[in-house]
Write a structure and sequence with these properties.
Length: 310
């Protein structure tokens, strides 16, 4: 369990470290941490970087790719992500040409983020939530890359995952993807209105809420029939709550303001505070969203079929 002052302090730090290029003209001039920011950037790419900073937060990239113990090395590689098949370490995605993704083309970046494909043609493990990011628009993905390119290049080496046999064979992921992964662009449903569509895009794709809140089958693929209805086997083997509007064990009794306040601050309607993996999500992602985006997340959640939890 975190505490509010603690969260605030971390937020301030994250804001300082992870947003070197996003703070407007005065920062761009003096920001030592934002090496490379503005190098050859025209007005168009500045817009792209600004959008990208916001989208990077909405997508929670820092939550995995930054090590909470190394506040001085944002995006240079994460702490262990524990899964039932082993431990993963999200790699360095700073623009360092050797240790990070500095040499990557837009096409390589899009293939990684939206199809789980490495530049050498290999497959990524779905611990990297490309299964959700697959629905991201190409423009949003490119803007994220544009933002990452403005970060300080850091030389932290990547750490190989520590995975148990037989899951350590990457080529098996080809079969897994063939069975469980169907990348599809986000399809706007005009009849549902702008807020719903924005919320659906944020929840399903950028915010990848289902990666934790949706139960998985034996093969680790999300069970679409139980979308966001919670699971007993979330990150670190812990329970993740049902966030459909089920009246008893979902968010049925929550008001819109409860939900948006929670996503902003971590405070639950009963005065308790968010714990577990959600703390990271609130810090690196939902607290950084605009009020309008948090409100649209709620519009979408409220529209889900109220499913009973696990
Ligand atoms: C839930 C944790 C998690 C989140 C959130 C996440 N990643 Fe990752 N990412 C990983 C892991 C784990 C890998 C390595 C997967 C593997 O080894 O197969 C990875 C790999 C990558 C790679 C490949 C890097 C390389 O050197 O091969 C890129 C690029 C990347 N992520 C970018 C992003 C971006 C951009 C975001 C936000 C939009 C993001 N990731 C969000 C966990 C995450
Ligand atoms: C990395 C895993 C993870 C991701 C991604 C995630 N959550 Fe959570 N979420 C959790 C966990 C774990 C809890 C339980 C927190 C606790 O124990 O206090 C939780 C709790 C919540 C709650 C409170 C529910 C309750 O009854 O207490 C809401 C609301 C919520 N999440 C919404 C979201 C939304 C919206 C997203 C996507 C933007 C999201 N979560 C993404 C893991 C996650």
């Amino acid at each position: 369990m975190g505490s509010a002052p603690h969260l605030r302090a971390v937020l301030a730090l994250v804001a300082l470290l992870a947003w070197p290029a996003a703070g407007g003209a005065q920062d761009a001039a003096g920001g030592a941490a934002g090496a490379g920011a503005g190098a050859g950037a025209g007005p168009e790419s500045e817009d792209s970087v600004r959008r990208g900073a916001y989208l990077t937060a909405a997508a929670g990239c820092a939550g995995c790719h930054s090590d909470p113990k190394r506040k001085d090395q944002p995006f240079a590689g994460g702490a262990a992500l524990r899964t039932p098949i082993g431990d993963f370490y999200a790699p360095n995605i700073t623009p360092d040409p050797d240790y990070g993704i500095g040499g990557w083309s837009d096409a390589e970046f899009l293939a990684a983020l939206k199809q789980g494909r490495a530049p050498d043609g290999g497959h990524y493990y779905p611990a990297f939530p490309y299964t959700s990011y697959a629905g991201m628009s190409d423009r949003d993905a490119r803007d994220i890359k544009a933002y990452l390119a403005t970060l300080a290049p850091l030389t932290r080496p990547n750490r190989e995952p520590e995975i148990s046999f037989p899951f350590n064979f990457r080529f098996l992921l080809g079969a897994w993807k063939a069975l469980f992964f169907e990348p599809q662009p986000f399809a706007v449903e005009p009849a549902r209105g702008t807020d719903w569509n924005r919320g659906a895009y944020l929840v399903r794709h950028l915010g990848h809420c289902g990666e934790c809140h949706t139960a998985r089958n034996l093969f680790g693929a999300r069970d679409a029939a139980r979308e966001l209805a919670g699971t007993l086997n979330g990150p670190d083997g812990k329970k993740v709550p049902n966030i459909t509007p089920h009246p008893e064990n979902g968010l049925g009794a929550w008001r819109a303001s409860d939900a948006t306040y929670y996503l902003e601050t971590g405070f639950l309607p009963d005065g308790d505070f968010a714990g577990g993996a959600m703390v990271e999500v609130i810090e690196s992602s939902t607290s950084q969203l605009t009020d309008a985006d948090r409100a649209s997340i709620w519009v979408y959640l409220l529209s889900l079929p109220p499913a009973p939890g696990p």
